[in-house]
Amino acid sequence: MERLDKAALNLMQPPEFRNESSLASTLKTLLFFTALMITVPIGLYFTTKSYIFEGALGMSNRDSYFYAAIVAVVAVHVVLALFVYVAWNEGSRQWREGKQD
């Protein structure tokens, strides 16, 4: 009888917390890179347009738009590459932990 009670208690326990922490970690990573994807290219666009291309280099307004857009596109690619790198390492780490269990 005691065996059945213990088995019933084991069935009623929540699933492994490791999966929840893994999900929370993945969500935090996704939100972090989403914020980076929004702020970094826009910030770099306006910063490089105003201070570097128009201010320091003395370019015209039309030319500074073009070169600042190039900087923003490069920033988008850098953030995407960093996200892929972090996601790949996080996934391989979770796979290794699951393999050892």
Give helix % range. Answer: over 70%
Outline = elongated
Outline the low-pLDDT stretches: 7-18
Number of helices: 3
Average pLDDT taken over every residue: 80
| Total beta strand runs | 0
The succession of helices and strands, N to C, reads HHH
Strand content: under 5%
Strand pairing plus helix content: what structural class?
Answer: mainly alpha
CA radius of gyration: 24 Å
Distance between the termini: 30 Å
Largest sheet: number of strands, sense, barrel closure:
none
Subunit structure: Associates with the V0 complex of the vacuolar ATPase (V-ATPase).
InterPro entries: Vma21
Pfam families: VMA21
Function: Required for the assembly of the V0 complex of the vacuolar ATPase (V-ATPase) in the endoplasmic reticulum.
Report on this structure.
Associates with the V0 complex of the vacuolar ATPase (V-ATPase). InterPro entries: Vma21. It is found in: Endoplasmic reticulum membrane; Endoplasmic reticulum-Golgi intermediate compartment membrane; Cytoplasmic vesicle, COPII-coated vesicle membrane. By secondary structure, this protein is an all-alpha fold. 90% of the residues lie in helices and 0% in strands. The chain has helices at 2-12, 17-56, 61-100.
